[in-house]
Amino acid sequence: MDKSQFNTLGKVTPRKDGVARVTGQETYTVDTILPRMLHGRTVCSPFAHARIKSIDTRLAEAMGAVVLTFQDIPRRRYNERIITVEWALHKDHYVLADKVRRMGEAVAAVAAETEELAEKAARAVVVEYEPLPVVLDPIEAMQPGAEPLYDTVVYGDQEIQIEKNIACAREVNEGDVDKAFAETDVFVEGTFDVHKIYHAQMEPKSVVCRPEPDGGITVWATTQSIHNTRIVLGQIFDIPLSKVNVKRMSVGGTFGSSIQMNSVVPIGVALALKARRPVKLTLTREEDMHDHGRFGTHAHLKLGAKKDGTLTGIELELVADIGAHILQGYSFLGVSIGWIVSLYRLPNVRYKGTCVYTNKAPGCAMQGFGNPQATFAMESLMDELAEKLGMDPVELRLKNYVRLGMTFWGQGPMVRSLIRSDGVPDLLEKGKELIGWDRRQPPGLKSGRFRRGIGLGRGFHTSSAGAPQPGDVIDYSGALVKINQDGSVDVVSALVDHGGGTLEGMAKLVAETLCVPLDMVSVVPTDTGNALYDVCTHASRGTYAGGGAAVRVAKQVRQEICETAARYLNVQPEAIEMKVDQELGQAVIYVPSIPDKQMTLKQLASRCWSESWKTIASMDSYRPVACPPAYVTVFLEVEVDTWTGAVRTLHAALGADCGTVVNPDGAVGQLEGGLSRGMGMALYEDIDWDERGQLRSKGYLVDAKTPGIMESPHLEGLSIHFADTNEPTGPHGAKGMGEAALNPVPAAYANAIYNAIGIRFYQLPITSEKLLAALVERETMLKERLR
Amino acid sequence: MGEALAQLSEHAPQGNPLAGGTNLVVEMRVGRHQGKSMVDLGRLKELRGIQAQNGHIVIGGGTTVSELLKHPLIADHAVPLCQSAAVFANPLIRNRATVAGNLVDASPAADLAPPLLALGAEVELVSREHTRWVSLDEFMVGVRKTLIQPDELMRSIRWSKPPKRSAGAFYKVGLRKADAISVLSAAVMVACDTSGRCKLARIALGALAPRPLRAYEAEDVLQGQPLQAEGIAEAARLAAEAARPISDIRGTAEYRKRVTEVIVRRLLVQASEALEHP
Ligand SMILES: Cc1cc2nc3c(=O)[nH]c(=O)nc-3n(C[C@H](O)[C@H](O)[C@H](O)COP(=O)(O)OP(=O)(O)OC[C@H]3O[C@@H](n4cnc5c(N)ncnc54)[C@H](O)[C@@H]3O)c2cc1C
To answer: Does residue A469 fall inside a structural domain?
Structure first.
């Protein structure tokens, strides 16, 4: 593919929604105001684990509020996210809790004329609780005698018992680990802990619901998937999907937090149905922080290698802390091993993963979905192995990484595909050069108060969960593309842009395919009533799969343009070509050998219109048959202050192989953002609960510690490069990017810190305090040995 | 002002002054202060303004943190206060948060207290009946406890202009560099005579005890001595000894104590260097 021929792709262009977003003109769900709209508030549990003995709503109702308790809602258990097939889906959720399983869980809700009255009414609802012992540690949760969160949940269509708080478990065995380990020269192993952390997305989760006279509902909601939200609502409230219309909204960032139908959505809907008036319900920041978080993981890994560095096999035992509800525990267990075997060739695998319920915020996908946790462990062990073998860490990785032509299954055992583009050698080479890898010294040679270290983390994320055959995860998209009378283009897609510029990418891909100036392409507002199914903007699939669908349909439209123009120009359709004329602001349809055989797309479309013929348009679904890895390598140089434990990021060289770079500014933004979020995970963020199951931060962002701009390296210390690859299965050669940008970052920090001070950390975050304590401990040990 | 004081004495002890609300509103949202009457001070001109008066810098209690950052008198005559304001919360909060609100709230981690202690500040408390000046060090009694009475307002805060050949500095250790509550903080002010001997030393610590406090013993070892490495190290050690931190969500007592020594030493070195190269 000759990328220099691109008209739009790879060019820096101002974002279509940019002005609206930065000037406050964009309307998000929370900005939606409807005539006669009421304001909702939830009544939140002050206990993390409790039975509800009684709810007295009389006072609140006397204030004029509509009050909702679980008795008003169909008793149907559901999973907030139906993107896995029935046999992999656990359902444990009711709209309002029957029993409280986390702090702040909604037990009732009110709607009233003003926000103030709603707040007062919510406080006036009297709930009598019977507190139960709080279960916080997933390992303790599995011990005999631990308080059970659930007796049963629904799995498929059956009710199953929950034993020892284990929500689900999964084993994967490949090859023969015992035999491989018997022939192994070197082992490295470790137990890696990554706590739950908070998504800290900018937009608070909100819903507005309007009940319709025909018994249907119209819903404005913060979500990454309008179709998922519609399907789940249809199931809970038993309304035909044709009467459930969910609008696609602008979203103010999610990092995965709205990957499911949000907990406020069905509550808002139930309030509106009861009140028979529109209702808006928005979570406060404190409520939001109790509502979701990354999956916490506790993992033991044992990795073997031959003397020459060839990996022989791995043993992995993983416990995932899923919190109070299950969203996608089964998939999480599948991908957790998938990430590892897709990082490095491991012919022999023994894996056991377990999802455990605790009285904490439910685990929900967060940028990387288990991948940063897995990569942190694997890349730490790869560095340890390199040191043991006396090999250069880059060499060891190059020798073992899963590369061009190999099969991999990042998204779990059922999602296997072949790697057809691979920029890893390039990325490693360039990264080494940019960071000055050759001046890297072992930690033993460093002394003094400030010690510098260079470290590497490499990783990837899949673009979508596509594969040749259907798997346990649904993955396909749809699009409608139509040509307007003036030659401009409307694209209708259910794909959601949660802030990263996904729809900008889609517009660029369509503009490129149809040779239309970018300004003439709009991804128009839509809803579930108008747009074909799209599973979700997740799994770094927006550009690859959602964009892939748009390109497939745009190609069909291009075909129709050629066929239609052929009739007017009186030539064979195959002879027709298209190009963009930026001065005219039009796509031009022409025949290269005959200069007067040409017309603009506007001329074509307006003739089709004025002659009462047709709209040139097409609509189709698209299932990607692969989920190619987008690779990212992160080289960091850090400085550790051995007196205070503070870590400063001096240099970061970030390299990405995302195939064709659709939107350069956006791609750079993803990498910078990935560095920042990864830094937070590595050094700062730690959402901790006290023994009552209350967040120690009490839900205040000021103690949630996501890093800000002041933690970032200075601009001169930041370099970003892209591998020049082309993904044959991707739209115009593109792959995903968003999650890959984060995945290797925590590992790169752990490795750089090790290189600075010679201490390896197996638990994130590596706070200044932990780092200082480790230095002090080492000092004390050394002194004692000297004595 | 008269009306505000009248309201307060009428409703005492159920009246409650409301300034920027960055502490109060957060507390009200979790159900505190129920049944109290809020007296909004937001528009009282008498509480605003930064001036030089008879060798003092005087600021109104309602001065916002943003105003501190912008004012030349603060930059010139209160370096540690200016440095503290620069790392206070975030721009939104700084536009609302007031100096009196910070001091009356009397959190152990109140960031404006250590620099004002280091400057030797006094606070002016007024009621309908009286006006009194109290040194800030006496004013703060314990965790969220001060000498203020329910019918009093903090009208202003003042300190003597630091002498020639003086220097000061502030540093805050947060879990990140902006929008963080202090894990610990420290402020120092030193002044020397012409021979380079220290004639004034104040060291103040934040988030290291139930209330922001002065490390008097550490100050004493510097008095009358040239500011040199040994004395500074000893003062830093004594300052860390004066600290009585607790372990909480932001750090353990042990970590806080250890880092105190590093920070106080760093600040004293900085100040002594500033004296040498003004
Ligand atoms: C996100 C966030 C970040 C923060 N970060 C920091 C930080 O970095 N450092 C820090 O120190 N603090 C921080 N705070 C706390 C708070 O902003 C400060 O303490 C601020 O100075 C309080 O001032 P205020 O005007 O908002 O006080 P208010 O909330 O209005 O009042 C606080 C108390 O002072 C009393 N009061 C106010 N004015 C007077 C007066 N003139 N006379 C008598 N009593 C009075 C009130 O009755 C109340 O008891 C933060 C708060 C938030 C919400």
So the answer is: no
For residue A121, give how far its alpha carbon lies from the nearest alpha carbon of chain B (Å). 14
In sign, the C-alpha dihedral spanning A73, A79, A85, A86 is negative
Residue of B241, B237, B238, B227 lying closest to B269 (CA atoms): B227
Answer yes or no: is A504 within a domain. Answer: yes
How many whole angstroms separate alpha carbon A655 and alpha carbon A435?
A: 11
Listed in order, the ranges of chain B carrying CATH 3.30.465.10 are: 2-6+47-160
State whether the Cα torsion B106-B112-B118-B121 is positive or negative. Answer: negative
- Same-domain check for residues A642 and A776: yes
Is residue A320 predicted with pLDDT exceeding 80? yes
Contact flag A643-B89 (C-beta cutoff 8 Å): no
For residues A775 and A664, membership in a common domain is answered with yes
Model confidence band, residue A471 (pLDDT cutoffs 50, 70, 90): confident
Whether residue A2 is predicted with pLDDT greater than 90 in this model: the reply is no
Does A773 contact B255 at a Cβ distance shorter than 8 Å?
yes
Domain range for A523 is: 3-25+476-622
Q: Are B243 and B165 in contact (CB under 8 A)?
A: no
User: Is residue A405 included in any domain, yes or no?
Assistant: no
Q: Which of B194, B171, B198 is nearest to B182 (CA)?
A: B171
Backbone angles phi, psi at A727, to 5 degrees: -90, 110
- CA of B162 to nearest chain A CA: how many angstroms apart? 31
- CATH number of the domain that residue A586 is part of: 3.30.365.10
Tell me what pLDDT residue A290 has.
94
At residue A98 the predicted structure's pLDDT band, cuts being 50, 70 and 90, is: confident
Ligand 1 atom 34: residue of nearest CA = B101
State yes or no: cis peptide before B13, omega within 30 of 0. Answer: yes
User: Measured between CA atoms, how close is B30 to chain A, in angstroms?
Assistant: 10
pLDDT band at residue A156 under the 50/70/90 scheme: confident
Residue A579 sits in the same domain as residue A701: no
Domain of A101, CATH number, reads 3.90.1170.50
Closest in B179, B251, B262 to A702, CB measured: B179
Task: Give yes or no for residue A121 having a pLDDT over 80.
Answer: yes
Q: Rounded distance, CA B19 to CA B102, Å? A: 10
pTM score of the predicted model: 0.95
pLDDT at A40 exceeding the cut of 90? yes
Measured in degrees and rounded to the nearest 5, phi and psi for residue B92 equal: -65, -50
Candidates A119, A703, A709: best to mutate against B (most CBs of B within 10 A) is A703
Q: Does one domain contain both A600 and A664?
A: no
Chain A hits for B173, Cβ within 8 Å: 644
Question: What is the ipTM, given to two decimal places?
Answer: 0.89
CATH of domain B166-276: 3.30.390.50
Q: For residues A126 and A260, state if they share a domain.
A: yes
What are the strands of the beta sheet with A586-590, ordered from one edge? A577-581, A586-590, A598-600
Kindly indicate the confidence band of residue A334, based on its pLDDT and cuts at 50, 70 and 90. Answer: very high
Identify the residue whose C-alpha is closest to ligand 1 atom 32. Answer: B101
- Distance, in Å, from the CA atom of B127 to the CA atom of B162, rounded to the nearest integer, reads 30
User: Binning pLDDT at 50, 70 and 90, where does residue A410 land?
Assistant: confident
Chain B environment of A708 (Cβ under 8 Å): 176-179
Question: What is the chain B residue with the closest CA to A708?
Answer: B178
What is the fold of B2-6+47-160? 3.30.465
In this prediction, residue A605 carries a pLDDT of: 98
Q: Which of A250, A276, A291 is the last residue of a domain?
A: A291
Confidence of residue A73 (pLDDT cuts 50, 70, 90): very high
Task: Enter the DSSP assignment of A255.
Answer: T
- Token look-up 């990328």 returns A3
Q: How many domains does chain A have?
A: 3
Q: Which residues of B touch A645 (CB under 8 A)?
A: 255, 259
The answer, yes or no, to whether residue A703 has pLDDT greater than 80, is: yes
Task: Give the residue-averaged pLDDT of A674-693.
Answer: 95
